[in-house]
Amino acid sequence: MAALTRAAPTKQELKSHEMGMHTEQLTGRTQQVFFDIDLNEPHHGFGLPDTFDVDFNKRGEIDASNMDAKQVNLRIRDMMKEGYGTIVLKNPGAKHSMAVGILNRLNLIIEGSLGYFGLGLLDGPNVRISGRVGWSCGENLMSGTILIEKNAGSQFGAALRGGDLVCKGDVGSRTGIDMKGGNIIVGGNTGAFTGFMMQRGRMVLCGNAGKNLGDSMYDGVIFIAGEPQSLGVDAVWGEMTDLDRGWLAEKLKKYDVMPKGGIDSFRKIVAGKQLWNYDNLEPTEKKMVL
Amino acid sequence: MRLKLAEADDLKTDHKIRDKIRERQGLVDNRLSELGVETVEVEQPRPYAFRYRLRYSGDTKQLATDIEQIEGAEVLSFGHALELIKDLGDATQVSQNYGLGDFRGTHAIGHTRMATESDVDIRSAHPYWAYPYNDISVVHNGQITNYWIMRREMERLGHRFMSNCDSELLAVYTANNLEQGATLEDSLKASIKEIDGVFTYLVATDKELGLAKDTMAAKPMVLYESDDIVALASEEVAIRAIVPREIDTSDPYDEEVRVWQR
């Protein structure tokens, strides 16, 4: 039978666990291919991402009135290539798939609203949007920050992996579905199935949530200041700690979305872990343990 | 009354269709005069599509049933306020063909269909008229999973289905509820419990515009409300076509029902 015991966690690991993070080493054969690009080792199509040296003081503008999404995305890329570190996107007109695939440090200021799939697949930029975003905003964000002043649609921050995704208004349903890291902060209310199948990361909800909050969550933490209509399967109330309160105070002050009741109004939701098992037992062995 | 006497594709596949349409129109005119209906004006925006202005105080259900007994005839809409237009082609083309730019009214609903589960033809296109009720029509985005169960239930109650499109069920279901004396809001609320699947749909009557979303909120809807206008669309960019400026919009939540009155 496979070993069920692990070495006692260190103090640092305990602190990480308390914050909802993981430290365990996964074992098994890796699928990752390592190569040294300086030695011209064959890298089977892997390449360094396109990154550009940009100067945040070099500021440029794009007027998207008569441009489609592809033209806007290519223009952002060309401007980064030219060294622009601050880009103001004007008149986006709620068009879909705008400002996606930016893998660079960049200050992006969007004056207006975006449609579906806005700001998807980002790694690094800091984005501020004065308007609203449609469905699936910030999908697969790896790092950076996205700050939305108005409302957001459903699937907000789906499969988020890192960075901060902040909406000061209300968001739709299935917020943070399948999120694997990072932080989602919502200043208003959120819809049904928020945090559905969440795996890691933190979600902060300053308003109320719809039914089935945290349904089937594997792990991660949800902080809520308002009331959820109901908790989802395997989502349970957890204990707030001083670390949580400190982290919340810092984040909410930074993005200016503190709820009326302050930090003390927050409660914590975590996975009950009844649905998911982290051991590597064979099904027959599992029956014996259960 | 709006009606069609053939499918758009019949023009390509049947070389005698124009003669047949003329013949069918003659039968419609005979049927109307037999029932004592006064025909004020007839327009023919497309070879197969007709608009009749009628004067009639009798039973419109009987009238619609009688006309639909004519081969190829389908009544698209009846009413003092409702004009229901559907055809093949993109929105701009259909709008030009039927002169939609000249329409005047308080509210309108429209739909561009991506056919997933039934044919690409006029009978499977939205909006659906809530047969046989004057001035009620429905557009829907989604999939109804208990379609056949509900359809059989409606058929047992005597309702007619013209297509195999699941969206038609919502029109028939709404018509049935209103026949039983329910308000539009009651009907929309009941549909969330009784209709399975994922859906967002709109109902327009002569005085009201209603919205209902399913329990999963799986189909998009963006809402913009101001003192002058209420606009709803699956995507905000569609609203921007009529409100070309920065606006505050929101997404209605799961199980949300809204009704606006004119």
UniProtKB/TrEMBL annotation, chain A:
Single annotated GO MF: oxidoreductase activity
Glutamate synthase alpha subunit C-terminal domain segment(s): 94-241
Stored SUPFAM superfamilies: Alpha subunit of glutamate synthase, C-terminal domain
Protein known as: GXGXG motif-containing protein
